[in-house]
Structures are given as structure tokens and as C-alpha cells.
Write a structure and sequence with these properties.
Elements lengths: L2 H12 L4 H8 L3 H9 L6 H10 L12 H5 L4 H4 L1 H10 L4 H6 L8 H17 E7 L5 E8 L14 E4 L15 E6 L8 E6 L2 E9 L4 E7 L3 E7 L4 E10 L3
Parallel strand pairs: 1-3
Antiparallel strand pairs: 1-2, 3-4, 4-9, 5-6, 5-9, 6-7, 7-8
Helix pairs in contact: 2-3, 2-4, 7-9
């Protein structure tokens, strides 16, 4: 069980709450919550904080739970062979061997090596994805799993969240303050929501290709509007693969 999973279960029991009660309040399934408590499920840091708040631990924050702590809700020893080797290094020697040894005790040797391997393995299955504002400055981060070396099929280092700055796309159910997960795309994708640079300003727009050189950029606040532009008038930054709504 991970430190986080152990804390959730202990506090849930202290509050006399059932897994079903906590899961329902957090908008997750009971089986998901039990897997988190057991340390067999990857959980994003924002979801972890939501569960902690639900059971009354509002003081917990990123300072209390590191990337290592939160990601440890998954059995990394099964996810990555390097972790299994690190776990073996961390295991204490049998008592008889320790007593018989005449070598001075080494401080921080194997443990540091194991810790390094553990963190290297962690980085291969999890990624702190930055949240970028409208001027492309990082303002936050979200923890996402890496599957087969990719996030949503893209290079993990190229993926980021865009903090939606306004309600110009609310007709497409994207509101100010939402987080749009962006994967790189330098060419227009017909029918997709895309992040576009127009004269130095970043905007989310729905793209409709008119011909080889012209696209329609749609936005929808109070009513649907569209701008017909030439490809050389804009720069495509990426495609929206999903939008996460802040609770």
C-alpha cells in the first residue's frame, strides 16, 4: 500500500465513511477508490487532492505529497522491471549477515542508488504535464500516465494543458478556466478543436478546412461565428484531445 493509499483508507475509516460514500462524493467508482487505497491504481494529483478534501484532509497539498508519493499508488514494480531491481536493493540484509559483517555501515550508498533507479523508473511511467496560460507561461501541472512511451499518442515532452482564458468556445462546451490537453499538430485537422496562434495571440478554435489554403475558424460565445483565413495568416500549435473541467 502506498503512503497516499494508506492515508486515504485510515482517514476514511476514522470518519466512518464507506468506500461507496467517498467514491460517490468524488465522482469515481468504488472499485477505483479501493484500487487507490490498495496501491494498485495510478491516480492524478488533482484527483488525489479531491479525495483527500472529501474525507476532511483539506490541509494536504503538493508540499505534503510529492510526485513520488502520488505516483506510488500504482505498483511500479510490476510496471517497470527497473523498479523491481530497486526494491531488491532496498531490502535489508538478513540479521545474521548484518551481525557477522565487519565492514563499516555505509550511509546512503545502496539506498541512494535504489532511490535513483526508483525515480528513473517513475519518470518512465508518469509525467508532470505543464499547464500553460494564454501567453504560454507555465502556471501549474498535472500528473499523467505514460503508455508505451507516449501520452495520447504524442511525445510526452511536447504535450501540455492550455488554461482556457475566456468563454469564446462555450457553445462547444469549453469554458473559461477549463484545461484543454494539447498534442502537437502543425497542420489543420478538419473538425477538430485546435490551439491557434493569430498575430501573437493564442486561441482555441474549431477548424473547418475549406480548401488547400483556406480554413474556417469557428468560435461560439453567445452565437456561432467564423473567420475565413488563409493558412499563412496563422500558426497551428496543437490539437485538443480532451477537456478537463474544474470542479
Amino acid at each position: 500500500m502506498s503512503r497516499l493509499g494508506d492515508l486515504i483508507r485510515t482517514e476514511r475509516l476514522r470518519q466512518k465513511m464507506t468506500p461507496k460514500q467517498v467514491a460517490r462524493k468524488c465522482g469515481v467508482s468504488e472499485s477505483y477508490l479501493l484500487a487507490v487505497e490498495a496501491g494498485t491504481r495510478i491516480i492524478a494529483d488533482d484527483q488525489a487532492r479531491r479525495i483527500l478534501r472529501t474525507i476532511g484532509l483539506r490541509q494536504q497539498n503538493e508540499a505534503d505529497f510529492s510526485l513520488d508519493d502520488i505516483a506510488a499508488t500504482v505498483d511500479l514494480a510490476q510496471a517497470n522491471p527497473a523498479v523491481a531491481r530497486a526494491v531488491e536493493v532496498r531490502k535489508p540484509a538478513p540479521e545474521a549477515v548484518r551481525v557477522a559483517s565487519t565492514e563499516p555501515e555505509k550511509k546512503g550508498g545502496d539506498e541512494n542508488v535504489a532511490g535513483s533507479v526508483w525515480l528513473d523508473a517513475l519518470k518512465s511511467v508518469m509525467k508532470n504535464v505543464p499547464v500553460m496560460n494564454a501567453v504560454m507561461q507555465p502556471v501549474d501541472h498535472r500528473l499523467l500516465p505514460i503508455l508505451n512511451g507516449r501520452i495520447e499518442g504524442a511525445n510526452p515532452d511536447k504535450v501540455f494543458y492550455f488554461l482556457v482564458p475566456d468563454d469564446s468556445m462555450r457553445g462547444f462546451r469549453v469554458h473559461q478556466g477549463d484545461l484543454a490537453l494539447i498534442v502537437p499538430a502543425q497542420s489543420p485537422v478538419d473538425g477538430a478543436l485546435m490551439l491557434v496562434d493569430l498575430q501573437g495571440h493564442r486561441h482555441l478554435r474549431k477548424v473547418k478546412k475549406l480548401d488547400a489554403t483556406t480554413v474556417l475558424l469557428q468560435h461560439y460565445n453567445r452565437e456561432l461565428e467564423a473567420d475565413s483565413l488563409q493558412l499563412n495568416e496563422m500558426t497551428f500549435i496543437g490539437r485538443v484531445v480532451r477537456v478537463e473541467f474544474e470542479p
